[in-house]
Design a protein that fits this description.
Largest sheet: 6 strands, antiparallel
Oligomer: single chain
Number of strands: 8
Helix content: 25-40%
CATH architecture: 2-Layer Sandwich
Order of helices and strands: HEHEEEHEEEHHE
Low-confidence stretches: 1-17
Distance between the termini: 44 Å
Mean pLDDT: 86
CATH class: Alpha Beta
Strand content: 15-25%
């Protein structure tokens, strides 16, 4: 009988065991400039962080909370990555910055917003990073595109599928599927 090998979690974050693939789901949104071009640029940029395994259609969505701003264009991405959560978040923040994102107003207009929704079945709560995304189950603009590419994936906290979470939402939050352009319809 073999003894179980304990893994030092700090070595996971440093990448010592970085050949472990994880399926991660991301939400992308934009409402400044050319939102479709912004989403396509972000999708291309995410390829540096892993393999983009699926891309939902683009959805035109009504702003939530801060409603006095342009409507958003949103999509969901399935990413196969070897990155650990903090490494992935760092890469995402770098990509947002490269694309011109400036965090001036909470929930305000933005060139690009990329959120980690799910990281496999992991539950992560650290300073600056909470996975699953703490509000995803309340947001139609997140769940509608995500259900298109991951309807049967289970939320690790609520133990419900993405489809079940979407179907349980109250009416409201206008979300309209539009014809995808550019990379949105490709993988």
């Amino acid at each position: 009988m073999q003894a179980k090998r304990l893994v030092d979690l700090s070595s996971l974050e440093t990448g010592k065991y970085s050949n472990v693939h994880k399926l991660v789901y991301l939400s992308l949104g934009s409402n400044l400039g050319d939102p479709a071009a912004n989403l396509n640029t972000a999708i291309t940029g995410l390829r540096a962080l892993g393999e983009v395994a699926a891309v939902s259609s683009f959805y035109e969505t009504e702003p939530v909370e801060l409603t006095a701003q342009p409507w958003f264009l949103n999509c969901a991405i399935k990413l196969d990555t070897e990155k650990m959560p903090k490494q992935l978040m760092s890469g995402i923040l770098d990509l947002e910055k490269e694309m011109g994102r400036r965090r001036q107003q909470n929930k305000g207009p933005r060139i690009i917003d990329i959120d980690i929704l799910l990281f496999g079945s992991s539950i992560i709560e650290t300073k600056g990073l909470t996975i699953p995304h703490p509000a995803m189950h309340q947001r139609r603009f997140v769940l509608e595109p995500l259900a298109e590419i991951a309807s049967e994936v289970r939320h690790p906290v609520f133990k419900r599928t993405v489809r079940e979470l979407r179907d349980a939402l109250p009416p409201g939050q206008a979300v309209r599927r539009i014809q995808a352009s550019g990379l949105g319809s490709q993988v």
